[in-house]
Amino acid sequence: MPELPEVETVRRGLEKALLGKRIDGIKTGTKRLRRPFPASLQKAVSARVEGLQRRAKYLLLRLDINQTIVIHLGMSGRLVIHPANEKYTPAKHDHFVLTLQDGAKIVFNDARRFGLIEMLADDTLDQHKLFSHLGPEPLEKEFSTAYLADYLKAKKISIKLAIMDQKCVVGVGNIYASEALYRAGISPKRAAKSLKKPEIEKLVPAIKRVLEDAIKAGGSSLRDYVQADGELGYFQHNFNVYDRAGEKCRKCGDAIKKITQGGRSTFYCPTHQK
């Protein structure tokens, strides 16, 4: 599943194509995604895209009619730009086509159909069930040492599962949770409430840095993830622990271990991470 860096990479890739443009048409496929397409999507025709934001792993196309198109990529969804001067030939799993007045098309392709597209009024976004439970953005100032220390102080679950909880902080998925804990030198098996303030002071910037590095690198191209321009990301080449079970730790030389937590694979160094 695309994680926060992948979604942010897509957002940046789409911004130049969408920002300030008017929507000329919207076409949806006959098959539903995770949910049926809302009929209200047609309200977006003739509207202008005033902003393109990201909240957690959701893309928000802000329109000048006080409405927002919400897009979630699901497990393998992708948004691809087809420029106006290129012929667009529909592919098998193209479920949503947004045509701009300049002739360019933004196409959502999703073979597994776990993605989501909604149309919501701007004044209902924060209270909507998709967003009302979400914690702070990890790259914003609200996600701080003081905030995380307060959140973790009574949590008995493991620290890895805690920082993957969207109520704690959004967008820190499985890959980047493992990588951030490695950078901070913290074992993923530790109870969240056991972390001391100096450890949390290392973990918060580690989370921010690993996400920032992944965004700069274009996301991770595991499985079928692609950027908006069709190019694969390459952050996976910089993984310190993820998917490196049995390989040597780059800090101490011990073997990277693999365990399962919450049904997901966790990779860590038992020597470097305490």
Walk me through what this model shows.
Helix 1 crosses helix 5 and helix 4 (174-184) crosses helix 5. The chain is of the alpha+beta class and 274 residues long. It has five helices and ten strands; from the N terminus they run αββββββββααααββ. A hairpin with a 3-residue loop joins strand 3 and strand 4 (67-72). Mean pLDDT is 92; it is low at 221-225. It is 22% helix and 21% strand.
Brief overview:
The protein is of the alpha+beta class and 274 residues long.
List keywords for this structure.
5 helices, four-stranded antiparallel beta sheet, single chain, 274 residues, alpha+beta
Indicate the topology.
Layout: H1 4-18, E1 23-28, E2 49-55, E3 58-63, E4 67-72, E5 78-82, E6 94-100, E7 105-109, E8 116-121, H2 145-152, H3 159-164, H4 174-184, H5 197-216, E9 257-261, E10 264-268
Antiparallel strand pairs: 1-6, 2-3, 3-4, 4-8, 5-7, 6-7, 9-10
Helix pairs in contact: 1-5, 4-5
Number of DSSP strand runs: 10
What does the average pLDDT come to? 92
Order of helices and strands: HEEEEEEEEHHHHEE
As a percent range, the share of helical residues equals 10-25%
Structural class: alpha+beta
* Rg calc: 20 Å
The shape is: elongated
Percentage beta strand: 15-25%
Count up the helices: 5
Taking the alpha carbons of the first and last residues, their distance comes to: 29 Å
Major beta sheet summary: 4 strands, antiparallel
Which residue ranges are poorly predicted, with pLDDT under 50 across at least 5 consecutive positions? 221-225
Biggest sheet: strands side by side, in what order?
A: 1-6-7-5
